[in-house]
Structure formats: C-alpha cells, structure tokens
Write a structure and sequence with these properties.
- It is a single chain.
- The chain is built from eight helices and nine strands.
- The chain has 214 residues and is an alpha/beta fold.
- Strands 1, 2, 3, 4, 5, 6, 7, 8 and 9 form a nine-stranded parallel β-sheet that branches.
- The termini are close together.
Length: 214
C-alpha cells in the first residue's frame, strides 16, 4: 500500500526485491530521505511460497550471494536487509555466514526480523562485524485497533527501559491508519523515532525507537 509512505516520521521501509512496485516505492521512500531495507525472502519451517529473490537451505555460497547481489543491483541505496519469513534459514549457520560475508563487503546492516527465537542471524552478523539489531515487537499480527495499540505500548515500554526498540508493521490499510494516530504520541513521551541506520550507529542513544514497514 503506497499510503505507507505517508506515515509520519523516520519510518524505515522494507521492500521485497523483484516485485512489480517494489523499486518504485523504494525510490519514493529514498527521495524523501527514508531508510530502505531489502526485505529478503528466506526459507521458513512450514514451506511457505517465497517469491523472487529468495534464499533457501539448498543453495550454496555462490547462489546466495548472487541473489543478494541482484537485489542490491535493483535497489542500490538500500542500507541493509531484513528477513521475510526465514524461520528455517536463519537457524542455519552456513547460509547466515554467507549472507553476512556479503553484507560485510557491502558495508550494510542486518535487521533480524526474529521470525523464530532460534534465529542465529544477529549472532552470526556480530561474528562477521556486520552492524545488526533485532525486532522487538510485531505491531500488527492482528489488525484490530486494540491489538495494534497494545503492541505499540509494549514497544514504548521497551524503548523506555532498553533505550532502543524496534517494531515491525506491515502495509495493511488498518495498520497505516492506526499508526498514523499513534506515532505522534512518541514525541510526547520524549521518544525519538529514528531511521534504522542511525540506530545501529548510536546504540547508546536515549529513548529511541525504529519502525519498519514492509
């Protein structure tokens, strides 16, 4: 939903590679000085359909790095990647190591969407010296206003106690409408909404939160 681009503040946009409108949306976000991540499909434990640009456990080092290269060729200004699905692949050391080796050479970041608590993504990123952080709250697994508000309040509590917090939402019309109302409340609480790239550079910054819309 292109209306996601109208969300207030320093939203980070996660864009699926090789999709009909992905490159256009990414360019519009970048034009408005918003961070863009490549939202890379990764193999899940339940075998969901992945779409173009996906990374799977049967791929070797060259194949994984070639897919990442194609994604960055399409959106070269992306500041890094995060995983779309990936509950299987992020548990596997070798695919994560090959991914992080590529990201290190590109000098970009890895945001672990944490689709499984068993993910090795952030741990392997640190081993390779890749700037990394992980998702704390999924904001809209349910699309009711009460649920999204509850999740947003949890994100605020984490930001207040941890100094940083990362929330992920999806571009559902309901999510966009509700978040448009909720985001301005952050400033009232002295919480700054920041781009994901600034969060990895300033991990000790007080009361900061980042939101990604994919």
């Amino acid at each position: 939903d292109a209306n996601a681009l109208k969300l207030p503040g320093q939203i980070t946009y996660a864009i699926l590679p090789h999709t009909p409108y992905g490159k256009t949306l990414a360019q519009q976000a970048y034009k408005h000085n918003k961070d863009v991540l490549l939202h890379i499909p990764m193999e899940s434990t339940i075998g969901k359909k992945l779409g173009p640009g996906a990374l799977t456990s049967d791929m070797g080092e060259i194949a994984i790095q070639e897919e990442l290269q194609k994604a960055f060729a399409e959106i070269p200004f992306a500041v890094g990647i995060n995983n779309h699905m990936g509950s299987k692949l992020t548990q596997l050391y070798s695919p994560m190591a090959w991914t992080m080796q590529f990201l290190k050479e590109k000098n970009v970041l890895f945001l672990d969407s944490m689709t499984t608590k068993l993910s090795k993504g952030e741990q392997v990123a640190k081993l390779f010296g890749v700037p990394t952080l992980h998702r704390h709250v999924f904001l809209d697994n349910q699309l009711s206003e009460s649920y999204i508000t509850k999740q947003f309040e949890q994100l605020i509590r984490i930001a207040q106690s941890n100094k940083t917090a990362v929330g992920i939402a999806h571009p559902h019309p309901e999510s966009i409408e509700i978040l448009t109302k909720l985001i301005p409340k952050l400033a009232e609480l002295n919480i700054e909404l920041v781009a994901v790239s600034s969060l990895v550079k300033t991990e000790q910054a007080p009361n900061r939160t980042v939101q990604s819309s994919d």
